């Protein structure tokens, strides 16, 4: 029984102090973002290229929405034969 009590003597030194709740929230948010990126780009060799293509596509879509369609018919041109 003396062996068990000797083990508990150093247990107080091993106690980890919990960080401030705000710091803990930030750490958890960073960890969640990291996990999300890892799952998003799983199997992708070059995630930066994928991100660039995605942003470029979003810019093109945004530009198409802001530019008025020519002809007023939604870009469709009918030809009568």
TrEMBL record:
It holds the Pfam family SVIP. GO terms for biological process: negative regulation of ERAD pathway; negative regulation of retrograde protein transport, ER to cytosol; negative regulation of VCP-NPL4-UFD1 AAA ATPase complex assembly; positive regulation of autophagy. Keywords: Lipoprotein, Myristate, Palmitate. InterPro entries: SVIP, SVIP_metazoa. Residues 29-40, 48-64 have a biased composition (Basic and acidic residues). Residues 70-81 have a biased composition (Gly residues). Residues 29-81 are annotated as: Disordered. One of its GO terms (cellular component) is endoplasmic reticulum membrane. It comes from the Eukaryota. PANTHER family: SMALL VCP/P97-INTERACTING PROTEIN, SMALL VCP_P97-INTERACTING PROTEIN. This is Small VCP interacting protein. It comes from Gasterosteus aculeatus aculeatus.
């Amino acid at each position: 029984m003396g062996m068990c009590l000797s083990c508990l003597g150093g247990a107080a030194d091993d106690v980890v102090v919990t960080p401030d709740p705000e710091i803990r929230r930030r750490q958890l948010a960073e960890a969640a973002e990291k996990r999300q990126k890892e799952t998003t780009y799983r199997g992708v060799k070059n995630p930066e290229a994928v991100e660039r293509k995605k942003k470029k596509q979003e810019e093109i879509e945004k530009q198409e929405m802001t530019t008025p369609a020519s002809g007023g018919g939604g870009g469709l041109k009918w030809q009568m034969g």
